[in-house]
Amino acid sequence: MSAEMTATRPEIKTDFAITALSALMAAEVTGLDLAMPLDAAVQRQIHAAFLEHRLLVFRGQNLTKEEQVAFTEQFGTLERHTTRNRGTANLPLVHIVSNLDEDGKPMGRVRSDMWHTDKSFRPAPSMATILHAVTLPPEGGDTVFVDMHAAYDGLDAATKDEIVDLRVVHSWELSRENEGRVLSAEELADAPDNAHPLARVHPETGRTAIFVGMHASHIEGKPFDAGRALVLRLEEHATQPRYQYRHSWRPGDLLMWDNRCLLHRAEANFDAATYPRILHRTCIRGTPTSP
Description:
This protein has about 290 residues and is an alpha+beta fold. It is about 25% helix and about 25% strand. The strands form four sheets. The chain has a seven-stranded mixed β-sheet with strand order 1-2-3-13-5-15-4, covered by helices on one side. Strand 1 and strand 2 form a beta hairpin. The longest helix is centred in the C-terminal third of the chain and has 15 residues.
Protein backbone atom coordinates (compact mmCIF):
# COMPACT_ATOMS: atom_id res chain seq x y z
CA MET A 1 0.00 0.00 0.00
CA SER A 2 1.38 3.42 -0.92
CA ALA A 3 2.26 6.12 1.58
CA GLU A 4 -0.43 8.30 0.03
CA MET A 5 -3.09 5.72 0.84
CA THR A 6 -1.95 5.21 4.42
CA ALA A 7 -1.29 8.84 5.31
CA THR A 8 -3.80 10.57 7.59
CA ARG A 9 -4.96 14.11 7.10
CA PRO A 10 -2.50 16.61 8.60
CA GLU A 11 -3.45 18.50 11.72
CA ILE A 12 -4.28 22.09 10.84
CA LYS A 13 -3.21 25.03 13.00
CA THR A 14 -5.32 28.12 12.49
CA ASP A 15 -5.58 31.52 14.10
CA PHE A 16 -9.02 31.83 15.60
CA ALA A 17 -10.97 33.97 18.04
CA ILE A 18 -13.30 33.18 20.95
CA THR A 19 -15.66 36.01 21.88
CA ALA A 20 -18.23 35.93 24.69
CA LEU A 21 -21.80 36.46 23.49
CA SER A 22 -23.36 37.30 26.86
CA ALA A 23 -22.45 37.72 30.51
CA LEU A 24 -24.45 34.56 31.33
CA MET A 25 -23.11 32.00 28.85
CA ALA A 26 -22.16 31.34 25.20
CA ALA A 27 -19.17 32.31 23.11
CA GLU A 28 -18.64 32.68 19.38
CA VAL A 29 -15.72 30.89 17.73
CA THR A 30 -14.50 32.26 14.41
CA GLY A 31 -11.56 31.40 12.20
CA LEU A 32 -11.72 27.60 12.39
CA ASP A 33 -12.61 25.15 9.64
CA LEU A 34 -14.07 22.20 11.54
CA ALA A 35 -13.88 19.99 8.45
CA MET A 36 -10.15 19.77 9.18
CA PRO A 37 -8.70 18.05 12.26
CA LEU A 38 -7.71 20.32 15.15
CA ASP A 39 -4.22 20.11 16.57
CA ALA A 40 -3.84 19.22 20.24
CA ALA A 41 -3.32 22.81 21.41
CA VAL A 42 -6.46 24.02 19.66
CA GLN A 43 -8.45 21.11 21.07
CA ARG A 44 -7.35 22.12 24.57
CA GLN A 45 -8.36 25.74 23.96
CA ILE A 46 -11.76 24.72 22.63
CA HIS A 47 -12.35 22.38 25.57
CA ALA A 48 -11.39 25.10 28.05
CA ALA A 49 -13.75 27.55 26.36
CA PHE A 50 -16.49 24.92 26.36
CA LEU A 51 -16.16 24.52 30.14
CA GLU A 52 -16.05 28.28 30.70
CA HIS A 53 -18.90 29.34 28.42
CA ARG A 54 -20.92 26.08 28.30
CA LEU A 55 -22.19 26.90 24.79
CA LEU A 56 -19.89 27.45 21.81
CA VAL A 57 -21.13 28.83 18.48
CA PHE A 58 -18.82 27.97 15.58
CA ARG A 59 -19.58 30.26 12.64
CA GLY A 60 -19.32 29.58 8.93
CA GLN A 61 -19.21 25.77 8.90
CA ASN A 62 -20.31 23.51 6.05
CA LEU A 63 -19.79 19.96 7.28
CA THR A 64 -20.87 16.69 5.79
CA LYS A 65 -22.26 14.16 8.25
CA GLU A 66 -18.95 12.30 8.11
CA GLU A 67 -17.02 15.49 8.91
CA GLN A 68 -19.34 16.24 11.82
CA VAL A 69 -18.72 12.78 13.23
CA ALA A 70 -14.95 13.29 12.87
CA PHE A 71 -15.14 16.66 14.67
CA THR A 72 -17.25 15.20 17.47
CA GLU A 73 -14.88 12.28 18.03
CA GLN A 74 -12.04 14.70 18.82
CA PHE A 75 -13.80 15.47 22.13
CA GLY A 76 -15.13 12.09 23.19
CA THR A 77 -17.07 8.96 22.29
CA LEU A 78 -20.21 9.35 20.22
CA GLU A 79 -23.46 8.59 22.04
CA ARG A 80 -25.99 6.37 20.33
CA HIS A 81 -29.52 7.66 19.93
CA THR A 82 -32.72 5.98 21.05
CA THR A 83 -34.13 3.05 19.12
CA ARG A 84 -36.60 5.17 17.17
CA ASN A 85 -34.11 7.96 16.47
CA ARG A 86 -31.49 5.93 14.68
CA GLY A 87 -31.04 8.48 11.92
CA THR A 88 -30.00 7.37 8.48
CA ALA A 89 -28.83 3.82 7.88
CA ASN A 90 -25.35 4.82 6.73
CA LEU A 91 -24.56 7.07 9.74
CA PRO A 92 -26.86 6.12 12.62
CA LEU A 93 -24.91 8.27 15.10
CA VAL A 94 -26.01 11.40 13.24
CA HIS A 95 -29.59 12.25 14.19
CA ILE A 96 -31.50 14.41 11.72
CA VAL A 97 -33.51 17.05 13.62
CA SER A 98 -36.27 18.49 11.45
CA ASN A 99 -39.87 19.64 11.18
CA LEU A 100 -40.47 17.41 8.15
CA ASP A 101 -43.04 14.64 7.92
CA GLU A 102 -42.52 11.20 6.37
CA ASP A 103 -43.04 12.70 2.91
CA GLY A 104 -40.33 15.31 3.47
CA LYS A 105 -42.78 18.20 3.81
CA PRO A 106 -42.95 20.74 6.66
CA MET A 107 -45.53 19.39 9.11
CA GLY A 108 -46.40 22.59 10.95
CA ARG A 109 -44.76 21.78 14.29
CA VAL A 110 -41.29 21.72 15.77
CA ARG A 111 -40.10 18.83 17.90
CA SER A 112 -37.99 19.19 21.06
CA ASP A 113 -39.85 22.34 22.08
CA MET A 114 -39.94 21.45 25.79
CA TRP A 115 -37.05 22.13 28.18
CA HIS A 116 -34.68 19.18 28.33
CA THR A 117 -31.09 18.00 28.40
CA ASP A 118 -30.14 15.32 25.89
CA LYS A 119 -29.88 11.69 27.04
CA SER A 120 -30.42 12.50 30.74
CA PHE A 121 -32.28 9.17 31.06
CA ARG A 122 -29.11 7.20 30.29
CA PRO A 123 -26.94 5.74 33.12
CA ALA A 124 -24.16 8.03 31.84
CA PRO A 125 -26.00 11.16 30.67
CA SER A 126 -24.66 12.92 27.60
CA MET A 127 -21.66 15.20 28.03
CA ALA A 128 -22.26 17.40 25.00
CA THR A 129 -24.45 17.94 21.96
CA ILE A 130 -23.19 19.20 18.59
CA LEU A 131 -25.93 20.63 16.37
CA HIS A 132 -25.19 21.83 12.84
CA ALA A 133 -27.54 23.97 10.76
CA VAL A 134 -28.27 22.44 7.36
CA THR A 135 -31.49 24.20 6.25
CA LEU A 136 -32.96 27.17 8.12
CA PRO A 137 -36.17 29.18 7.77
CA PRO A 138 -35.65 32.77 6.57
CA GLU A 139 -36.05 33.92 10.17
CA GLY A 140 -36.87 32.38 13.55
CA GLY A 141 -36.44 28.75 14.54
CA ASP A 142 -34.33 29.79 17.53
CA THR A 143 -32.88 27.46 20.17
CA VAL A 144 -33.11 28.74 23.75
CA PHE A 145 -30.78 27.64 26.55
CA VAL A 146 -30.96 27.77 30.35
CA ASP A 147 -27.88 27.93 32.59
CA MET A 148 -28.64 25.45 35.37
CA HIS A 149 -25.55 26.53 37.35
CA ALA A 150 -26.94 30.06 37.56
CA ALA A 151 -30.37 28.65 38.39
CA TYR A 152 -28.91 26.62 41.26
CA ASP A 153 -26.98 29.62 42.53
CA GLY A 154 -30.27 31.55 42.53
CA LEU A 155 -32.01 29.13 44.90
CA ASP A 156 -32.53 30.12 48.51
CA ALA A 157 -30.52 28.30 51.17
CA ALA A 158 -33.53 26.29 52.37
CA THR A 159 -34.17 24.85 48.90
CA LYS A 160 -30.49 24.00 48.42
CA ASP A 161 -30.61 22.11 51.74
CA GLU A 162 -33.83 20.39 50.68
CA ILE A 163 -32.41 18.97 47.45
CA VAL A 164 -28.77 18.34 48.35
CA ASP A 165 -29.12 14.57 48.88
CA LEU A 166 -32.10 13.86 46.61
CA ARG A 167 -32.02 11.74 43.47
CA VAL A 168 -34.30 12.46 40.55
CA VAL A 169 -35.58 9.73 38.22
CA HIS A 170 -35.17 10.59 34.53
CA SER A 171 -37.63 8.71 32.35
CA TRP A 172 -37.75 8.52 28.56
CA GLU A 173 -41.11 6.79 28.95
CA LEU A 174 -42.66 9.70 30.85
CA SER A 175 -41.26 12.37 28.54
CA ARG A 176 -42.71 10.58 25.50
CA GLU A 177 -46.07 10.25 27.27
CA ASN A 178 -45.98 14.02 27.81
CA GLU A 179 -45.79 14.34 24.02
CA GLY A 180 -48.67 11.91 23.51
CA ARG A 181 -46.67 8.85 22.50
CA VAL A 182 -46.55 5.42 24.14
CA LEU A 183 -43.22 3.61 23.85
CA SER A 184 -42.95 0.14 22.39
CA ALA A 185 -41.54 -2.75 24.42
CA GLU A 186 -38.30 -2.48 22.42
CA GLU A 187 -37.97 1.23 23.21
CA LEU A 188 -38.67 0.63 26.92
CA ALA A 189 -35.99 -2.05 27.09
CA ASP A 190 -33.53 0.22 25.28
CA ALA A 191 -34.08 3.23 27.56
CA PRO A 192 -35.14 2.28 31.11
CA ASP A 193 -35.46 4.87 33.88
CA ASN A 194 -32.32 6.03 35.69
CA ALA A 195 -31.87 8.13 38.83
CA HIS A 196 -29.29 10.93 39.17
CA PRO A 197 -28.45 13.58 41.78
CA LEU A 198 -30.97 16.41 41.69
CA ALA A 199 -28.22 18.84 42.73
CA ARG A 200 -25.67 17.55 40.25
CA VAL A 201 -21.97 18.39 40.61
CA HIS A 202 -20.22 18.96 37.30
CA PRO A 203 -17.44 16.35 36.99
CA GLU A 204 -14.93 18.79 35.48
CA THR A 205 -15.66 22.19 37.04
CA GLY A 206 -17.09 21.17 40.42
CA ARG A 207 -20.02 23.59 40.06
CA THR A 208 -23.53 22.45 41.04
CA ALA A 209 -26.51 22.50 38.68
CA ILE A 210 -30.19 21.60 39.02
CA PHE A 211 -30.68 18.43 36.99
CA VAL A 212 -34.27 18.54 35.74
CA GLY A 213 -36.06 19.03 32.39
CA MET A 214 -38.80 17.16 30.55
CA HIS A 215 -37.13 13.77 31.10
CA ALA A 216 -37.11 14.32 34.90
CA SER A 217 -40.04 12.39 36.36
CA HIS A 218 -40.05 12.25 40.16
CA ILE A 219 -37.87 11.97 43.26
CA GLU A 220 -36.51 8.57 44.21
CA GLY A 221 -37.90 7.34 47.54
CA LYS A 222 -40.64 9.99 47.80
CA PRO A 223 -44.37 9.79 46.96
CA PHE A 224 -44.72 10.35 43.23
CA ASP A 225 -46.97 13.41 43.42
CA ALA A 226 -44.81 15.21 45.97
CA GLY A 227 -41.63 14.45 44.05
CA ARG A 228 -43.21 15.46 40.77
CA ALA A 229 -44.31 18.77 42.26
CA LEU A 230 -40.75 19.50 43.40
CA VAL A 231 -39.35 18.72 39.94
CA LEU A 232 -41.84 21.08 38.29
CA ARG A 233 -41.19 23.81 40.88
CA LEU A 234 -37.47 23.66 40.22
CA GLU A 235 -37.97 23.73 36.44
CA GLU A 236 -40.24 26.76 36.75
CA HIS A 237 -37.58 28.54 38.78
CA ALA A 238 -34.75 27.57 36.43
CA THR A 239 -36.46 28.64 33.21
CA GLN A 240 -36.97 32.26 34.22
CA PRO A 241 -35.81 34.67 31.49
CA ARG A 242 -32.84 35.84 33.60
CA TYR A 243 -31.26 32.38 33.27
CA GLN A 244 -31.89 32.09 29.51
CA TYR A 245 -29.79 32.67 26.41
CA ARG A 246 -31.43 32.71 22.96
CA HIS A 247 -29.52 31.57 19.89
CA SER A 248 -30.72 32.99 16.58
CA TRP A 249 -29.32 30.69 13.94
CA ARG A 250 -27.21 31.84 11.01
CA PRO A 251 -26.40 29.69 7.97
CA GLY A 252 -23.32 27.59 8.72
CA ASP A 253 -23.66 27.70 12.51
CA LEU A 254 -22.52 24.68 14.50
CA LEU A 255 -23.32 24.66 18.22
CA MET A 256 -21.59 22.63 20.92
CA TRP A 257 -23.10 22.75 24.40
CA ASP A 258 -22.65 21.14 27.80
CA ASN A 259 -25.60 18.89 28.63
CA ARG A 260 -24.37 18.53 32.21
CA CYS A 261 -25.40 22.08 33.10
CA LEU A 262 -27.73 23.43 30.38
CA LEU A 263 -31.34 22.90 29.39
CA HIS A 264 -32.48 23.77 25.88
CA ARG A 265 -35.54 23.78 23.67
CA ALA A 266 -36.39 24.65 20.08
CA GLU A 267 -38.77 27.53 19.48
CA ALA A 268 -41.37 27.50 16.72
CA ASN A 269 -41.12 31.24 16.06
CA PHE A 270 -41.44 30.75 12.31
CA ASP A 271 -43.98 29.33 9.84
CA ALA A 272 -43.24 25.65 10.46
CA ALA A 273 -45.91 24.58 7.94
CA THR A 274 -44.10 26.38 5.11
CA TYR A 275 -40.37 26.45 5.81
CA PRO A 276 -38.11 23.45 6.53
CA ARG A 277 -35.75 23.54 9.50
CA ILE A 278 -33.12 20.77 9.32
CA LEU A 279 -30.13 20.26 11.59
CA HIS A 280 -27.69 17.40 12.14
CA ARG A 281 -27.08 16.30 15.73
CA THR A 282 -24.29 14.27 17.30
CA CYS A 283 -23.88 13.65 21.04
CA ILE A 284 -20.84 12.84 23.17
CA ARG A 285 -21.25 10.17 25.83
CA GLY A 286 -20.84 11.36 29.41
CA THR A 287 -19.84 9.60 32.60
CA PRO A 288 -22.07 7.98 35.24
CA THR A 289 -23.29 10.38 37.93
CA SER A 290 -22.16 9.83 41.49
CA PRO A 291 -24.25 7.36 43.59
